[in-house]
């Protein structure tokens, strides 16, 4: 926000006497989804297999209950109802992702699917007709299986294939889409996939984590530069990568270094190269991981080095800072001889760090999700401290439950996170310009299909996939309408 806007906001806030409750003028509310999780129609028309289709069809351990996203919310057919829900909520924007194999059945840009192209055309035009901005994620985890067969994110050529895919996407939609995310959560693509093996392609191989980390950054940078050079001058949109942000708090005062290393390992590894002045890997992580490799007899560094040219290519490839916030963890140094259980990012074991739940927070399902709204404000401060006063966008923030309609716990969590975000804006001066709730509707939740994040309940037992508003949808709708935060409790 510009300083004149801040002044106007604070005068207004003083007038209404509710300093922390009113959102800045122009602040945008949205809701999010992703292609594999909602579209279904996995083999309709000329769409080909993605790595999630393959994994959930062939690796039984990948899903908790043997289900998959073959039909999901059937948004391929029910997209008009999705737009209607976005309108009911009064959303300013709807964030959704494109399925790479629906648009480019070969994975490569030599063939564009007519049906795939029309599907997203209709969705974008339908949203715009209702005054809702489309916010498009180019890649939300569903890599073409044909590219996985060539090594996927571990093959250095993938950054060129992604660049080609992004260029096609801009050529089709950049005239109407003004806000973009290149890649959602590299930590899920590289770490959850290759260090935990719990996400597609489901291969546990630590070396691959770091090859993937580097290639994701190069792919993002190439796609950003195509937009910046060829499309931004025409359409003036903005584009960034989107990270998953876990706030790591030090267990005791002595654990501050462990907490900071955890932040640098899980997020800095995907942000330092883009947002820092010097570019490349976060030095503390590079030094420690490379020392690990020497100790274990490897002849190459653990983090594949960037050439000077690559550093320059990646550095500065952002228009805002996008991130998703769900939970926080405590970090501490491992005790001598302590066995470290993998948690969230398995590779962090290499740094001798243990991550645990906050002692006074009760874990809910799955244990990785420890609600700690304060972590949101803390990590907004961290981002600003490291990278300066950037425009920030919360591209996902959500709460899961087992499916009930009167979801007061979700409303409480949403309220508490929005309150922390407002404190970051009003007290700390952060320039947060948008918030997107995850998710518009219950969707296929990757390998935890029992979890429901939706403002709208989806009846997965009905062929119509009937959508019904939960109490939280009404709550969010009122917050958006008033442009102010109120307690969900009477
Ligand atoms: C992902 C979503 C997922 C959500 C809840 C986010 O990190 O981007 O795809 O559904 O977490 O698990």
UniProtKB/TrEMBL annotation:
Signal sequence annotation: 1-18
Has UniProt tagged this entry with the keyword Hydrolase? yes
Q: Which GO terms describe its molecular function?
A: beta-glucosidase activity
The biological process GO terms on file are: carbohydrate metabolic process
The alphabetical list of record keywords is: Glycosidase, Hydrolase, Signal
Q: Which InterPro entries match?
A: GH (IPR017853), GH_1_N_CS (IPR033132), Glyco_hydro_1 (IPR001360)
**What are the coiled-coil residue ranges?**
none
Q: Which family does it belong to?
A: Belongs to the glycosyl hydrolase 1 family.
Q: What is this protein called?
A: Myrosinase 1-like
């Amino acid at each position: 926000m510009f300083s004149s806007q801040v002044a106007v906001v604070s005068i207004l806030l003083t007038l209404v006497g509710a300093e922390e409750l009113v959102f800045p003028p122009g602040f945008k509310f949205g809701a999010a989804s992703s292609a594999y999780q909602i579209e279904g129609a996995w083999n309709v028309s000329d769409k080909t297999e993605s790595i999630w289709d393959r994994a959930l069809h062939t690796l039984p351990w990948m899903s908790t209950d043997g289900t998959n996203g073959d039909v999901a919310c059937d948004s391929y057919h029910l997209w008009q109802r999705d737009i209607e829900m976005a309108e009911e909520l009064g959303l300013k924007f709807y964030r959704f992702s494109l399925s790479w194999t629906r648009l480019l059945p070969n994975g490569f840009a030599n063939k564009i699917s007519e049906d795939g192209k029309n599907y997203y055309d209709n969705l974008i035009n339908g949203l715009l007709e209702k005054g809702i901005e489309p916010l498009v994620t180019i890649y939300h985890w569903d890599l073409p299986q044909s590219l996985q067969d060539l090594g996927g994110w571990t093959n250095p050529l993938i950054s060129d294939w992604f660049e080609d895919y992004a260029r096609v996407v801009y050529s089709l939609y950049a005239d109407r889409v003004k806000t973009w995310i290149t890649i959602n959560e590299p930590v899920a693509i590289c770490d959850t996939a290759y260090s935990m093996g719990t996400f597609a392609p489901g291969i546990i191989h630590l070396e691959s984590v770091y090859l993937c980390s580097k290639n994701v950054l190069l792919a993002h940078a190439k796609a950003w530069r195509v937009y910046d050079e060829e499309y931004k001058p025409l359409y003036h949109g903005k584009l960034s990568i989107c990270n998953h942000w876990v706030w790591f708090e030090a267990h005791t005062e002595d654990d501050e270094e462990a907490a900071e290393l955890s932040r640098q390992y899980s997020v800095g590894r995907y942000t330092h190269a883009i947002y820092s002045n010097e570019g490349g890997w976060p030095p503390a992580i590079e030094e420690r991981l490379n020392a690990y490799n020497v100790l274990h007899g490897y002849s190459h560094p653990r983090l594949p080095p960037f050439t000077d040219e690559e550093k320059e290519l990646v550095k500065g490839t952002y228009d805002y800072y996008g991130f998703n916030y769900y939970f926080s963890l405590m970090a501490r140094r491992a005790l001598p001889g302590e066995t470290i259980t993998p948690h969230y990012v398995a590779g962090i074991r290499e740094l001798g760090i243990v991550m645990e739940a906050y002692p006074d927070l009760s874990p809910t399902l799955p244990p990785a999700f420890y609600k700690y709204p304060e972590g949101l404000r803390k990590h907004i401060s961290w981002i600003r401290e490291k990278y300066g006063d950037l425009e920030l966008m919360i591209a996902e923030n959500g709460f899961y439950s087992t499916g009930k309609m009167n979801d007061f716990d979700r409303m409480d969590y949403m309220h508490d996170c929005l309150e922390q975000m407002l404190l970051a804006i009003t007290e700390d001066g952060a320039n947060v310009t948008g918030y997107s709730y995850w998710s518009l509707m219950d969707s296929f939740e990757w390998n935890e299909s029992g979890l429901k994040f939706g403002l709208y309940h989806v009846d997965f037992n009905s062929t119509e996939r009937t959508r019904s508003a939960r109490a939280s949808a009404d709550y969010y709708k009122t917050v958006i309408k008033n442009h102010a935060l109120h307690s969900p409790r009477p």
